[in-house]
Amino acid sequence: MAAPAAKQDGYFDCRDAWAETLESLAQQDPRIVAVVNDSVGSSKLGGFQKKFPDRLINVGIAEQNMVGVGAGLANGGRIPFVSAASCFLTGRALEQVKADIAYANFNVKLVGQSSGVAYGELGPTHHSIEDFAWLRPLTNLTVLVPADPWETAEAVRWAAAHEGPVFIRLSRAPVPQLDVANRVFQPGKAEMLRDGRDITLIATGTTVHLANAAAQGLAADGVSARVLNLSSLNPMDETTIIAAAQETGAVVTIEEASVRGGFGGAVAELLATHHPVPMEIMGFPGFQPTGSIKFLFERNGLTPDGIAAAARRVLSRKRA
Amino acid sequence: MLKNDIVDTIRDKALWMRRRAFTMIHDAQLGHPGGDFSAIDIIATLYFGVMRYDPRKPDMAERDRFIMSKGHATGALYTALCAAGYYPEDWLSTYMQPESLLNGHPNRNYLPGVETNTGPLGHGLPVALGIAIAGQLTHSDYRTFVLVGDGELQEGSNWEAAMAAGNRKLGNFTLIVDRNRLQQGMGTEETNGLDPLDDKFLAFGWDVEMIDGHDIQALLDVLTARPDGRSKPLCIIANTIKGNGVSFMENKASWHHGVPNAEQFDIAMKELV
């Protein structure tokens, strides 16, 4: 795939990589179809619709039917990408996601758009900070959380080739392309962006670049922070996380999601069982007030400075 | 085969299914016999007089699909799939036993012939709609049949799917409503009334047929009519009797998930001949 066009400030909307990749896959594989709930525009599927009008199934504003139709299309030998705002796809149709997709183990790809607090000012009805907690326990469901355009394209490509249900959590929050040499996308394998001895910052999705920036700031203060990008929640790279806890002795998790039952919770469950270390879970403590994405990130310390401050708090507990 | 022979065959299969399902339920002391018995004539007609399938090739792309949306009626579904040749009869004896493939609600990953996992109500119609759309996209001539309980139509997801099916003009799509007029606790009309049900589907862009759901000939006639040229999905409202075939179960909501004691079992076996 050609490098996606960066916005002037070097930040990308990962939906572009998603849409371009899906179109290119659909060109090669006639089984690929898209299912939407009047979400053609918000899913950036206008180009797909133009190229493959029959393969864009718009069920209207009806998420339970949308997910069930996805399962049926898989029964009929299609490879459906069911794309809708994550808040409605997961919240409104959770029982369909559980029974029709995960439990029935159908080859359906669910794409949660504008997850987290991407819909900032629209408020908690449209925020999707609960989706990790809802989806994490679902057997059979691979949960992918790309951090940048490259991972987004790779996740979509991997999902299309994988036989089984997948949820891809996308955002419209602008993120930079991560600078990593020789990348290989492999669900269940964490990516180490930076090695360190004192503490590990484990981030997912839109917060990965913030954790990386925080580690740079900490380095200036003489703190050596390891940074892990976990772009897959199911399966989770348990080996790398446990090793990080053993080798650095302190952990901060950072996610654009609720701090209850989400990504940080998964890491905490793992470490509490295998290697407890001082830890802080960064994210959203509950429903958020109105405000832009930037405002909501800053309000909850999801900035390089905020993450560095959390790291220092955890380090002081480690030394105590 | 002469048409009357087919009717007789289906009747024989349906009788065997009732006896076998009631035995499973008696042995397990679990099950949903009332809804099994209202649906058995419909399901027997589909499997032994209407549908195209090969039990040796359960994944055959061109198979007709039957989706059991009222997933609790496994006594009906499991005996039908067994009689159709998907698995041997001794599997039925494991019904709801620990680790049995015959779970209280069907799982397609356990049992050949099961098209999707159902149990929570209001799931079968959307999934069946997706199967019918896949057939439309691939210009396949398979047919998709879905059976819903009438009480189940209180779930809103059905109406999302009904609207979409009507708008897509899916002539290869057939919905059968097991209209036994009783749900778990009491009558459908006392709970959250469905009538006039035919008008509701007509308004959603469907063709509607109303028949006696225990009249095999009537079921055969309406289910075998080829959909060629049909431009609308078909809703068959099959008027049925909950617990049909066993005197003490008929039209009794308590037999939704009631199970027989030894004496009731003996009476039923004497009646089911």
Summarize the structure.
The complex is a heterodimer of chains A (320) and B (273). With 320 residues, chain A is α/β, with parallel strands linked by helices.
What does this structure look like?
- The complex is a heterodimer of chains A (320) and B (273).
- With 320 residues, chain A is an alpha/beta fold.
- Chain A has helices at residues 14-28, 46-51, 63-75, 86-92, 94-103, 131-135, 149-161, 208-220, 238-248, 263-274, 293-299, 304-319; strands at residues 11-12, 32-36, 56-58, 79-85, 109-113, 142-144, 166-169, 175-176, 191-194, 199-203, 225-229, 232-234, 251-258, 279-284.
- In chain A, helix 9 (238-248) packs across helix 10 (263-274).
- Chain B is 41% helix and 11% strand.
- Chain B contains nine helices and five strands.
- In chain B, helix 5 (156-168) links the parallel strand 2 and strand 3.
- In chain B, helix 1 packs antiparallel against helix 2 (33-50), helix 1 (3-28) packs across helix 3 (74-83) and helix 2 (33-50) crosses helix 8 (216-224).
- Chain B starts with a helix and ends with a helix.
- Chain A binds chain B through residues 33, 54-55, 57, 59-60, 62, 64-78, 80, 95-96, 99-100, 103-106, and chain B through 61, 65, 107-109, 115-120, 122-123, 125-135, 137-138, 140, 156-157, 160-161, 163-164.
Describe the main β-sheet of chain A briefly: 7 strands, mixed
What general form of chain A does the structure show? Answer: globular
Structural class of chain B: alpha/beta
Strand content of chain B: 5-15%
CATH architecture of chain B: 3-Layer(aba) Sandwich
Query: Low-confidence stretches of chain B at least 5 residues in length (pLDDT < 50)?
Result: none
Number of strands of chain A: 14
Oligomer: heterodimer
